[in-house]
Structure formats: C-alpha cells, structure tokens
Amino acid sequence: MITPSSRLEHLATSVFSDLAAKKSLKLQKGFDMIDLSIGSPDLPPPEFVKECLAKKVKKNDQYGYALSGTEQFKEAVAYYYKNRFNVNLASNEVLQLMGSQDGLAHLALAYLDKGDIVIVPDPGYPIYSASVHIAGGELYPVTLNEENNFKADINIIPEEICKRAKIMIVSHPGNPIPTLVDRHYFEKLIDFGKKHNILIVHDFAYCELLFDQNKPLSILSIPGAKETAIEINSLSKSFNMAGSRIGYIIGKPELLEPLAILKSHIDYGVFHPIQAAATQALTSNYQFLEESTAIYQKRRDVFIHELHKLGWNVQVPQGGMFIWAKIPEGWTSLSFALAAIDEGVIVTPGHAFGDGGEGYVRIALVQSDDRLIEAAQRLKPLITKL
Ligand SMILES: Cc1ncc(COP(=O)(O)O)c(C=O)c1O
Prior knowledge:
The chain is α/β, with parallel strands linked by helices. Helix content is 40%, strand content 14%.
C-alpha cells in the first residue's frame, strides 16, 4: 500500500461527503431538490464578456503560456479599484491569480515556516485553514459569534500568539458570515498588523454584493494599509465568472513577491482570452454590477420575508451571497441539514466551516425568487417542529 501524506487527514471533508451522498440518493430517486448549498453564481456573466471570450478563443495567437497577467489586465484592476473603492494602485501592485482560491491556497506556503501561526476566522471559508495545514503551519482560530457581532476581536488574542503569528485572514462581507465592517475596524486591524509584524489578508470576494445602500470597503483604502495588508479579489462573484478562473492579489510589491515566486513554479498563468474578457469587465460602465446586486437583494428580501412569516427570525444580511441562519432549538447543524434534504432543500451545516459554526446553517441565495419561496415553504416542518 502506497500511503498518501498524513497532511491529507486535515483536509478530509466528511461533512460534505455525507451530505453529497444523501443528496445524490435523492436525485437518483427522482426527487426535485432545491440546492442552496453552493456558493457558485447561478447567473451568467455580462453578454460583452462572453462575446469577448468567444472572439478571442478563435484566434491562433491566444494559446501560448500566459505566464503572468498582461499589462492591460493589471491596469484594468487599477482602474476598477480607483473607480469602485477609491484605491490607487500601480501595475506592479497587482499580481494575477487563477481565482482567489489560488492565492489563498498558496499564500501560507509562500510565507510560513514550521511553528508560524495564521490567525483565521472560525467559522471561515475552508481554504483559510486548509492552506495552513498544507503548509505545515499552525492555526489560531478566532471565534465569530453574536457576542462579538461576527467580527474577530483582536484584543483577546494572547501576546505569545501575536509574536508567532505571520498572517491574519479576514473577509467582509465573508463566507459563510456576511458581516460588514467600518473604517475604524480596519484601522485597528492595520495597527495590530504593524505592531506585531503580521500580514493582514483581506479576502474581498464579495466586494460587489452590498445591499441597502451600504458601500464596499477595501482595506487598502485605509491610509497606511499597504505597509501590512494585502487584498485578494476575483471576478467569480462580481461578474459571475467563477468557472473562467481569474483573480488577483493587490498590495505592496514586496508583500506580493513571495507568492509570485512560488506561483512561477506552480502554474503558467491564466488563458489569454479569459484575461482579455476580465479586462473588459473591469473597465466596463459597471451597470451589470448594479443589476446583479439588485437581483441578490430581491432574493434576500423575498426569502427572508417568507422565513420570518414562518417564524424563523434569521438575521438579515447586508451583503454577500449567504444567509447565516441560527437554527431553531432542538437541532444540530448536521441534523437540520440532513432533515432539510428530506424536505427537498440542500443547505450547508455551519460546522463545515469550523467548530464555531455549530448551531447555524449557511443558505446560499443562488436560486430564483420563486424557488427560494418554495424552499422556505419546504423548510416549514423543520421550523414549526419547535
Ligand atoms: C470568501 C471566498 N473567498 C474566495 C473564494 C474563491 O473564489 P474564486 O477562487 O472563484 O475567486 C470563495 C468562493 O466561494 C469565497 O467564498
């Protein structure tokens, strides 16, 4: 028997495989399932993006190794950041990625040595902790809960952890918890990073999904942020380009360089037509973004209205793609998610994102208004069981 690396033990996703098995059994039996468990947009990219991609793939000169981001792409990111978040970027402050996942997965490998710590949110998006296991580092999870308004409280992180920590990851609005933060919160985080020499990484994947006139806040818009912070972003959620992999990490060139060096050994860049289509998206008039946000906000409103009517008073998110729903008494995250499958709705149990997620389920707003209303109705027996 040729045994795999023991580091894979930390990457086991038994929660997801249990659910996937139950879901596929239901589908095989012909049940109609409403899948609210995935964070992949159900809507297409803008028409002009698809057209650009289609035109480019026909050209013979598009198929060589790209190696790195084109100058046009980097300038497009700078243009977008200036227009959307009032952040000034030079083109050497942009490192192209094959989606944010690429950057998040490899950052720990580029930065950590044995014994180094990464401070991650708990619950948090799974690659934050998986990347640390892959790199052989140590984790310090900070709990996000109602008491701390779902924001990492840096004041309670022990001094010895701060000394050994090299990276801290935050995400607002995040996945699974879509909390927004204000400038003051980021200022404190930047002071913390500077004081302890910690790289603050802001995952800004949901930067375009803010509701009720809330404005997105890039951590790099805080004066002095570039000394200690970098931001990861992509076009997956904003322009519905999740499958055509492209993203970027921005900040001071010296802070990006370790990742650039590592990546130069791992991949040969993003397919040129995708780079060109992303460049067009980032320099468009952004009307698509406004329309897309309106669609998600309406979904949130109709779904939550229905849940509240049924007596499930879940918190109303002000951004992001998810509802982080505290489950009714009498359930665990898993028992609720499994029972929901029996009713024809798939949600993700909160503990799939860390121990701190127990007691919650994550519901993705990735279906039409009508399907969401139907999903709420199907969940009624679970809610009224109380
Ligand atoms: C918080 C967060 N970060 C990063 C990603 C990865 O996105 P991508 O690699 O498509 O940019 C996701 C995907 O769901 C996410 O939810």
